[in-house]
């Protein structure tokens, strides 16, 4: 089992990453509200990419993206310490930032249920710390088959939801299915993060060495399992997180905020947890503590997702 100090350090780093992600999310939303072009697949891939490039001319939106990128430093370190099974639920605490912002900045009224939800989300990391998570040690050979099953299934599901979204074009359901597509793609990127941290450690790569970055970026040509996974997982993170961001932006523009927030906040937690349990084989000495913490998180996410939607409507 991981010692309590490592668990606490991992949780603290995960919370720092969550703050960056949440504030980045706020700036992205503010940028979207400043007349950025609508993203639509119906206009062709070229027009879609052109419209998306216009986003990078908006300074507020760029700040949001940069904050998200900065957040990946503590996030990756946290994953290497305690695994995605612990880190991913911690990201839900970012919802508390919206609650605090509404009180201090917008003078928004907060209901008791939302205060209780924030308190429960704050308690969840403490409960997880006492669940005593197992050490993270991925068998980079043995996990290939279950990972490929997950990866292929996820790609198929994302394509199915994307095709359904196209069939439901110009209806409220279009944004919902595109958001689900984005969540699945983003989840794949999150899983690649867990693989990257393990493979990077096993490959003994030093980023200060002359060939360090070459090993990371092009490690597939080193022809050993550790370097191959470092390379694949790094590019996998980049590609699938970028795709996830693209679909999220479309979902924000086309679907109701309350539904979008609930889909993102819920599925982004559930999918990595299932992968952590069934693919990475992480276990808990006190499983009941983790189940209780997960219940607290789901309850808090459900209520504060609805609050996020109210906050967005207030801003508009």
Plain-language structure description:
The protein has 316 residues and is mostly helical. The chain has two domains: 1-136 and 284-316, no CATH class; 138-281. The chain has twelve helices and no strands. The protein has helices at residues 4-32, 45-54, 59-82, 84-90, 95-104, 112-129, 144-167, 172-203, 212-218, 225-254, 257-278, 287-315. The termini are far apart. The model has no long low-confidence stretch (mean pLDDT 79).
Looking at this protein, list some descriptive labels.
0% strand; mainly alpha; globular; 316 residues; 77% helix
Bin the strand percentage: under 5%
Number of strands: 0
Give the helices and strands as they follow along the chain.
HHHHHHHHHHHH
* Class inferred from helices and paired strands: mainly alpha
Coarse morphology:
globular
Domain module count: 2
In brief:
The protein has 316 residues and is an all-alpha fold. It has helices at residues 4-32, 45-54, 59-82, 84-90, 95-104, 112-129, 144-167, 172-203, 212-218, 225-254, 257-278, 287-315.
């Amino acid at each position: 089992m991981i010692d309590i100090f490592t668990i606490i350090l991992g949780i603290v780093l995960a919370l720092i990453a969550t703050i960056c992600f949440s504030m980045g999310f706020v700036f992205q939303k503010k940028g979207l509200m400043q007349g950025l072009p609508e993203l639509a697949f119906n206009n062709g891939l070229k027009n879609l990419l052109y419209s998306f490039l216009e986003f990078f001319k908006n300074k507020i939106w760029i700040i949001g993206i940069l904050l998200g990128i900065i957040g990946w430093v503590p996030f990756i370190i946290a994953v290497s310490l305690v695994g995605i099974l612990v880190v991913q639920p911690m990201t839900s605490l970012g919802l508390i930032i919206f609650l605090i912002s509404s009180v201090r900045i917008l003078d928004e009224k907060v209901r008791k249920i939302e205060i209780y939800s924030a308190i429960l989300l704050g308690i969840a990391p403490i409960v997880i710390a006492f669940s005593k998570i197992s050490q993270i040690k991925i068998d980079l050979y043995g996990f290939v088959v279950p990972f490929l099953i997950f990866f292929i299934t996820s790609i198929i599901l994302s394509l199915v939801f994307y095709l359904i979204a196209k069939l439901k074009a110009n209806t409220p359901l279009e944004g919902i299915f595109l958001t689900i597509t984005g969540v699945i793609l983003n989840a794949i990127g999150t899983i690649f993060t867990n693989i990257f941290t393990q493979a990077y450690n096993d490959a003994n790569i030093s980023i200060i060495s002359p060939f360090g970055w070459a090993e990371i970026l092009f490690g597939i040509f080193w022809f050993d399992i550790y370097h191959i996974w470092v390379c694949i997982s790094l590019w996998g993170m980049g590609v699938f997180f970028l795709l996830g961001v693209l679909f999220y932006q479309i979902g924000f523009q086309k679907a109701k905020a309350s539904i979008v927030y609930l889909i993102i906040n819920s599925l982004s937690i559930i999918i990595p947890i299932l992968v952590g349990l069934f693919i990475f084989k992480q276990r808990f000495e006190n499983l009941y503590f983790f189940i209780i913490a997960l219940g607290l998180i789901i309850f808090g996410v459900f209520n504060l997702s609805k609050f996020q939607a109210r906050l967005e409507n207030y801003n508009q």
